Amino acid sequence: MITRGAYLLFFTFALLSILESCHKHKIINTSFYYRKTIYKSDQMEAAVSANFTRKLYVRIMDVNMDDDGISPVPVSPITFKDKLQ
Fold first, then answer.
1. Angle at Cα 60 formed by Cα 59 and Cα 65, nearest 5°?
2. Which of 7, 22, 23, 84 has its CA 20 to 30 A from that of 72?
3. Cβ(41)–Cβ(32) under 8 Å?
C-alpha cells in the first residue's frame, strides 16, 4: 500500500517538472531556401538575411536524366546576377 507521503512526493515532483519545462528558452535557427533561376538580391532579401537568418540555401540546378535514361543532365541552372554573401 502506497502511503500518503509517497503520493504527495510524486505529485510535487511532477508539478515541479511541468513548471520547469515551461521556462526553457529554445534557440531557433532560421534558414531560407532560394529557388529561383536567376539570383538577384533585393533590399527585402538583404534585410531578412542580415537580421533573421544565418543560412541561405540556394538551388544550383535541377538534375534530370537524358533522353536515353543513362546519364544525368543539368536542367535550368541558376544564373547569378549578384554575389552571394
1. 105
2. 84
3. no
| In contact, 79 and 38? CB cutoff 8 Å | yes
SS (H, E, C) 58-76: ECCCEEEECCCCCCEEEEC
DSSP 4: H
Burial class (CB in 10 A: 0-12, 13-18, 19+), 34: middle
pLDDT of residue 72: 92
Block residue for cell numbers 500518503: 4
C-alpha distances in angstroms, 7 versus 26, 36, 78?
32, 60, 64
What does the pLDDT look like over 27-40, one tens digit per residue?
777 777 777 788 88
Would you state the cell numbers that stand for residue 6, as one nine-digit string? 509517497
The sign of the CA dihedral 61, 62, 64, 70 is positive
Domain ranges of the chain: 25-85
